[in-house]
Design goal:
Elements: H1 2-13, H2 15-24, H3 32-39, H4 43-55, E1 59-64, E2 67-72, H5 75-85, H6 103-106, E3 108-110, E4 113-115, H7 116-128, E5 132-134, E6 139-141, H8 143-152, H9 156-160, E7 168-171, E8 178-181, H10 182-194, E9 198-200, E10 207-209, H11 211-221
Antiparallel strand pairs: 1-2, 3-4, 5-6, 7-8, 9-10
Length: about 220
């Protein structure tokens, strides 16, 4: 186990490979050319790094036509990368209202679920309303929560049938608190986008909160944007 841990840590610790992993937190699959541009390296160098990440099982590749697309081999790897970022100490003391000037910290995606200040606020609201319970840092839906999510338009039984984690806390790197990950977290984000509460921002993980979203976040989660 120690040898395997050292191997994985050294793989992710390389600056180029670390930036590849950070880029993939966007939730999309990328070609080698796109990743080379994103991390500012040559096609030859990116191929070498991708081969090592594939061999370690951190990434997988899918072929469509003439192109190969790289992504995390499973969604849990994204949670690890997001949590690792929380180890980075703040460079300067936070300034009053500074989050208003940092969209990526205010509201963003973490792979396939909601993160940032708003993502953490959603989690805290669900915990405060006893819709989700926190038992020894493990999240579970309460009996009342089953009805709440049904009324909200999310079928929990369908989510539990998916071949992935249903619900788990994910440590937010900017807030240093947990937001909601797993198939339930992904479903919450999908619904907020589908219902036009949130809109994606081009070339960024930052999310734009619409006027409707402000009203609905206040109504369902008591969040004042």
């Amino acid at each position: 186990m120690e040898d395997q841990f050292i191997k994985i840590a050294s793989l992710i610790g390389d600056p180029t490979r670390a930036l590849i992993m950070w880029t993939l937190l966007d939730g999309k699959a990328f070609t080698a050319t796109e990743l080379a541009i994103a991390v500012n390296t040559s096609p030859q160098n990116i191929s070498m790094h991708l081969a090592k990440l594939l061999e370690a099982g951190l990434l997988c590749v899918e072929k469509q036509g003439r192109h190969k697309y790289y992504k995390f081999s499973n969604k849990e790897i994204a949670y690890v990368i997001e949590a690792m970022a929380s180890l980075v100490p703040p460079v300067n003391p936070p300034k009053k209202n500074s989050e208003k000037h940092s969209p990526i910290k205010h509201c963003r995606t973490c792979y396939d679920h909601l993160a940032g200040k708003i993502g953490v606020a959603v989690a805290e609201s669900l915990l405060g309303q006893k819709i989700i319970l926190d038992t020894d840092n493990k999240f579970e839906v309460s009996v009342e929560g089953i009805k709440w999510f049904s009324d909200f338009g999310i079928n929990l039984e369908d989510l539990k049938k998916q071949r992935r984690l249903f619900l788990k806390p994910c440590l937010d790197w900017s807030e240093r608190k947990n937001h909601i990950a797993g198939s339930l977290g992904a479903s919450l984000l999908d619904k907020m986008i589908a219902d036009d509460w949130l809109r994606k921002t081009k070339d960024s993980r930052a999310m734009q909160i619409t006027g409707k979203g402000e009203k609905e976040l206040l109504k369902h989660f008591k969040i004042v944007v």
